[in-house]
Amino acid sequence: MAKEKLKVGIIGTGMIAVSGHIPAWKNLEDDAEIVGAADILEDRAKLVAESEGIPYAYGDWVAMLEELDLDVVSVCTPNAYHKEQTIAALQSGAHVLCEKPVATCTADAAEMFDEADAQGKHLMIGQTARFSERSRAAKQICDSGRLGEIYYAETYFLRRRGIPTWGQFHMKEHSGGGPIYDLGVHAIDLLFWLMGSPPVRAVSGVAYTRLGNQDEGLATSLAESGAPIGVLTPLPYDYRDFDVEDMAAGFMRLDGGAAVAFKTSWAVNIPENTGKTLICGTEGGLVLDPLTLVTNMGSYQINTTPRVPADRKVAFSGHWLEVEHFVNVIRGDEELMVTRDQVLGVMRTLDALYQSAAEGREVWLD
C-alpha cells in the first residue's frame, strides 16, 4: 500500500526557501507535496506559488496554518521569527523543519523543543553542513577513533566582502546577530558534531563592526554574499541599517580539556573567501576541504585523501539531503540526526560568545 504524501507548507518565501527548501521538497514528489506558501509580502508568496506550482499562497502564515491541514512546515524566515512560527506550526499538528539558527537565544530554542515534545512532533533544525558526503566521511573517521584523543580544533569561514545585502541579515531586530548566526552556526555545529558534541565549559570572544556600517561603494554580487540563486525580490539595502557584527572570533574550552578556536566574517580584508575545519588528535589529524587524514605509517608521515562520492550537482544540495532525512524520520525509518541537545549546546556557545564580546571577559557555562 502506497504511503500518503506529506502535505508541506512554507513560511517565508525568500532566497533560502526558493533555492533550498522548495527544490528539496519537490525532489521528493512521491513522498511530499508543497500545498501552501506564506509570506508577509503577499505578492512574493503569490509569485513563488505560481512559479513553483504551489496551490495556495498567503500573506498571513497564521491563516495558512489554520486553513491547510499540514503535515510538515518549513520555517524559512529571519531568525527572530523562528520561535513564534515554529511553536504555532507544532500546535497546528505539523512537524517542523526550521532554518538555522534555531532562535536568537537558548531559552527560546528550549521552548521550541519543549513544544515539539508536548505535541509529539519532530522539530529539526537545518544544520545543512552535516549533510554532505564529505561531512559524512569525516564523521566516520572521527567516530572510528583513528584520531586518538582529540585535544584541539579550529574552524572558520571568512568572506572578503560578502554582506547579504538582499534581505534582513544585517538588522539585529530581524536576525538577532550577524555572521555568527549566518555562517558561524554552521561551522561550530559541524565541528562539534564531528567531535562528538562535547560540552562547552567556557567561551571567550570578540565581535567587531568595522566595515559593514560604511558605504565603501564596492561592486559586489549576490553570489559573493551567499545567494547564487533564489533572490526574487531583494529588499532595498542601506548600510546605515547595519547594526550587527561583521566579524567575530572566539576560543572555547571544552569538557575534558580540549579547546576550539573560531572566527567568522562577512567583510574582512583578506585576499579571498576562505574556510577551514581542522581537528588535532594524539593519533592523527583531520582537515576538511579537501578531506585529509594526517597520520604516520612506520617511520613516515602520511596524508590520506579519502575518495568521497561527489555531492549532487545542485545548489544547496545539503537541503536536499536534510529533507530526505527528515521525511525518513517522520516515517519512522531513521533517528533524528540533529538532536535537541546538540542544537542547544551550539546555542549556549553562541550566547556565551556574544556575552563575552559585550562584557570583555571569559564566560563560564554551567
What would the principal axes of the Cα set say about the shape? globular
Counting structural domains, the number is 2
**Class of the largest domain in CATH?**
Alpha Beta
SSE ordering: EHEHEHEHEHEHEHHEEEEEEEHHE
The CATH topology of the largest domain comes to Dihydrodipicolinate Reductase, domain 2
Spatial strand sequence of the major β-sheet: 14-13-12-11-7-10-9-8-15
Strand tally, please? 15
- Distance linking N and C termini: 51 Å
Sketch the major β-sheet.
Answer: 9 strands, mixed
Helix amount, in percent? Answer: 25-40%
What proportion of the residues form beta strands (DSSP E)?
15-25%
| Poorly predicted runs of 5 or more residues | none
CATH architecture label name of the largest domain = 2-Layer Sandwich
Q: How does this structure look, described?
A:
This protein is 33% helix and 24% strand. By secondary structure, the protein is of the alpha/beta class. It has two domains: 6-129, NAD(P)-binding Rossmann-like Domain (Rossmann fold), CATH 3.40.50; 131-315 and 345-364, Dihydrodipicolinate Reductase, domain 2 (2-Layer Sandwich), CATH 3.30.360.10. It has a nine-stranded mixed beta sheet with strand order 14-13-12-11-7-10-9-8-15, covered by helices on one side. Strands 3-2-1-4-5-6 form a six-stranded parallel beta sheet, sandwiched between helices. Helix 8 (179-194) packs across helix 10 (340-359).
